[in-house]
Amino acid sequence: MVEHGYDKTTFDHCMFIKRFHDGNFIILLLYMDDMLNVGHDAKKIQSLKGELSKYFTMKNLKLEKKIIYMMTKYDKKNGKLWLSQERYVQNIFKRFNKTSLNLLVLHLQATLS
After folding, report:
1. Are 107 and 4 in contact (CB under 8 A)?
2. Residues facing 67 on adjacent strands
3. How are strands ordered across the β-sheet holding 66-67?
4. Fewer CB within a 10 Å sphere, N or C end of the chain?
5. Do the Cβ atoms of 20 and 44 come closer than 8 Å?
């Protein structure tokens, strides 16, 4: 993806970001055979899909509620997207018989670098 102008983030090797001169950006998450892309400009996202389809067989699916072990919630009216791995963490606790542990919810400021 780097050769297509995307920068790999330092905090997740599956996440790429492409920033445009007009202030828009596309976030691309790749994991195994799943891909999630997020951005403000639908034309730029379609262009990305067109470029990737030259190299990969792709299916265009609707907005997913679960991807890459994350639950997603999208508030279209307010333009907000929430990602949660709570269920994934709870399953890990169950697997290792640690269901009595308390969860700590942290709200982190979103930064893309």
Report:
1. no
2. 70
3. 66-67, 70-75, 80-84
4. C
5. yes
Single-letter residue type at 21: H
Contact 61, 55 (CB under 8 A): no
- All structural domains of the chain with their residue ranges: 2-95
Question: Alpha-carbon distance 65 to 84, whole Å?
Answer: 10
Beta bridge partners of 80: 75
- At 84, give phi and psi (nearest 5°): -140, 135
CA 96 remoteness from chain centre = 27
Highest mean pLDDT: which of 21-25, 27-31, 78-82, 89-93? 21-25
Per-residue model confidence as pLDDT tens digits over 48-66: 888 888 887 877 666 655 5
pTM across the whole model: 0.56
Q: What is the pLDDT of residues 84-105, one digit of tens each?
A: 777 777 778 888 887 776 666 6
